[in-house]
Predict the 3D structure of the following.
Amino acid sequence: MSEQVQFLLDNLPNLLFGFPGNRPGGLLITIFLTVVANSLGFVIALGLGFVSESNKRPLRWLARLYIEIFRGIPVLLLVLLTFQLIGNGRRWGLSLTPLFSAFVALTLYSSAYQAEIIKSGLRSVPVPLVESARLLGYPPLLTFRRLKIPYTVRLMLPALTGQTISLFKDTSVVLIIGVADLMTTARIILGSDVGNAPYWVGLYLMVGACYFAVAFTLSRIAYWIEAQTQSGDLIHAVGNY
Amino acid sequence: MNFDWLSPELARLLLGGFWVTIFLTAVTTLLAFLIGVAVGGMRLSKRSILQLFATVYIEIFRNIPALVIIIFFAFAVPNLFPIEQRQAIFFDNALADGLKALTGLSLPYYAIAALAGITFNASAYIAELFRAGVKSLPQNTVDVAQTLGATEREVYRRILRPHGVKAAFPAMSTRFIHTMKNTALASFVTVPEFFMVTQTAITRSFQAIQLLLLATAVYLFLAFAFSALLQQIDRRLI
């Protein structure tokens, strides 16, 4: 038993920050992936939200197509496909690591989900408000930026937090391309050593606990925001993270 | 594009994986629905022990990635046993042989582990959605039923459960489609579902991008078909 505890304690820093002397990994990279992919995804989603309200039909269709494709396929498949398309090595003056592919894939994935949330949020903007702004001569982009988004962002915040939690857990699939996140680090620690067999259960319980700690904290924050903003009609969006 | 590499053998492999994915989706969806509604009901129960169990179940399985749960059941749990017994308990017994003969899978335990992992994960979501659905029902229907002399159990069975499911079904459908996509995670534990056989086909034909695009098309088709099916169920049955 004490060996178990010793093994887990020895490896806890590795799970959290990656192996000493190597590039950062573990939970740190998992969080980093989530934050970057989520933020970039939000910017793209704003664009998609704007385009999907455009009066040009082909543009709307393109936005629709984008959202449906990236929402319709498993994130695991998207990660592997992106890695195959981008490849490994140096190109265009960039060093293309699996981490880069993971960023691209997760950004595409989260942007589609966030766009869907933004689209449903935009429906809650009162039409007279938009019309009066347009009458006063606001161009569409300015109306979108100055009026619609500030109006809805508070309503969308719980759902967007929920989506962040979902993305945080989905980053675990980057195991397939060997990005050194929490999941991959656990796999490396255990390795193919048969002597490590007794530690599997303990280590994976600890990995689960790491994910749980972050996701659970975030979900409490989401519920707290929801209680603050009283956006009860979006409760399904929160419950569905 | 050139499809010369698609030999009949590879096509058969891919088609087999397609059916395994559909089978996994059907079983996990059904189980997740039943378990989810049961656990969601416990969460609403007035007995604190049931409530506590349901809360712990929901929070654990909702906040840990499905992949961790699947790998835990498939690879970690057998390691609890000494190597001589492990074989007999998990892989080499009458039940496993029976399942092998029935399904044609070489390692049925891994398929069960993946099924369990995905089901636990999905059922926690369904439970929470079901609870939200019940909470959204107007209080006066319950009051009327209670005034007419219905017991609490009857109110739950006849009113809260069916109408709660009805109210939550659109949100549940989203989760079911998510579950369908999550079946791809079973490939990590060597279950030959569609994503796994796609990878096998890649190692045989080296047509990675074409095969992955094919998989994209197949999953998109499955997502659309499944969502159409769920809409029909919503309209006709519930």
